[in-house]
Amino acid sequence: MNYKIVVDAGHGGVDPGAVSGNLQEKDFTLEASKYMYDRFNELGIPVKLTRDSDETLNKNERINRILNAFGNRNDVILISNHINAGGGDGAEVIYALRNKDTLAKNVLNNIAKEGQNVRAYYQRRLPSDPSKDYYFIHRETGKLEPILVEYGFIDSTKDDVVQLKNNINNYAEAVVKAVANYIGVPYVAPGGKKNTYVVKKGDSLYSIANSLGISVEALKNANGISGNLINIGQVLTIPSSSDKAPGDYVVYTVKKGDSLWNIANSYNVSVNDIVDYNNLGTTLLQVGQQLLIPMANQVPDSITYVVKSGDSLWSIAKKYNISVDELKRFNNLTSNMLSIGQKLMIPETGGYTTYIVKSGDSLWKIAQNNNVNVNDLIKLNNLNSTVLQIGQQLLIP
């Protein structure tokens, strides 16, 4: 499965969580959560936060944000970050009754490797109904796989307090590593590079290339592979193109009649740009081959739209006040068929501008600065939540 991650910073706003002196749980959980968000992004794993500021969330709003992030699906992992209280010592991980202990066990073991004392990984049942989970973060999150991580005790009589103040991001990194290993995404330490990958059962060249953000062609060329067969245990060299950030390119699948020249021309890049970006050894293309198209030279008066379930060329064109023919021509489309996840370039028509979300932004702040209504922003951008992600692209009417 292509897993997604929701990171939940426990408590927040008027709810400080556990408190000891001038230390508040909500501050530790926010720091750890924002660190995780950045790291999962670096690893190419889809991730969203329930909150990215000192915001008050009641139980219903928190659950809504969790379930709306990627949907109520069993390929979504929820990490709810917390700090314990009660004078104890060490980390704990609680997992849901509906899940196995594999992820919780790996998370706790990784935290222990960072020098933190650990207590246990376990499930907890509701006393009034033992068939249900004790914590709502497990009980009311549908099909998701949630874990609640308690990193230590804010009022510990031993060494937890010092460890939390000095090492909270190290413990967060331990969780990131455990999750990456659990979902089969190659783990890379902060600042590191993907050098090699060991083939596992169920892997294919496509799945490996997709998880690393490179083309199948680049992966094959780096390893001298002529066919599509790989073996379990085989060590693959990962080409340097794996360091490309997802926002730096779009993925193009070669169709019948395509050539490097017409693909380059439609994306406003040169043939050499595509050859170099994909480490191509030849200009010959095969139908179904995937190419990474560098975005550096894309026309500035356009935005990218990702096709969702229920979309049609007509509905997308109507949304952006352009014609279907203009939309097809701008994207070099020969039919009206769309695929979920397909990326379309939308020409700007003067009815809106684009804005890239920065650290500290909120919908209210962006709306106020641009003299528009928050509801207008939500409607224009098809938002299911008011939670924003750094780097997210918004249309401003």
| Coarse shape | globular
> CATH homologous superfamily name of the largest domain?
Zn-dependent exopeptidases
What gyration radius follows from the Cα positions, in whole Å?
Answer: 23 Å
CATH architecture of the largest domain: 3-Layer(aba) Sandwich
Ranges where pLDDT stays below 50 over 5 or more residues in a row are none
| CATH topology category name of the largest domain | Aminopeptidase
Beta-strand segment tally: 18
Strand coverage percent: 15-25%
Structural classification? alpha/beta
Structure description:
The chain has 397 residues and is α/β, with parallel strands linked by helices. It has three domains: 4-183, Zn-dependent exopeptidases (Aminopeptidase); 196-294, Membrane-bound Lytic Murein Transglycosylase D, Chain A; 352-397, Membrane-bound Lytic Murein Transglycosylase D, Chain A (Roll), CATH 3.10.350.10. Helix content is 32%, strand content 21%. It has 13 helices and 18 strands. The protein has helices at 25-42, 59-70, 102-113, 136-139, 160-183, 205-212, 216-223, 260-266, 271-277, 313-319, 324-330, 363-369, 374-380; strands spanning 4-9, 19-20, 23-24, 47-49, 76-84, 91-95, 118-122, 125-126, 129-133, 145-153, 196-198, 235-237, 249-253, 290-294, 302-306, 343-347, 353-356, 393-396. The strands form seven sheets. The chain has a six-stranded mixed beta sheet with strand order 4-1-5-10-6-7, sandwiched between helices. α3 links the parallel β6 and β7 (118-122). α6 packs across α7 (216-223). It is globular, with a radius of gyration of 23 Å.
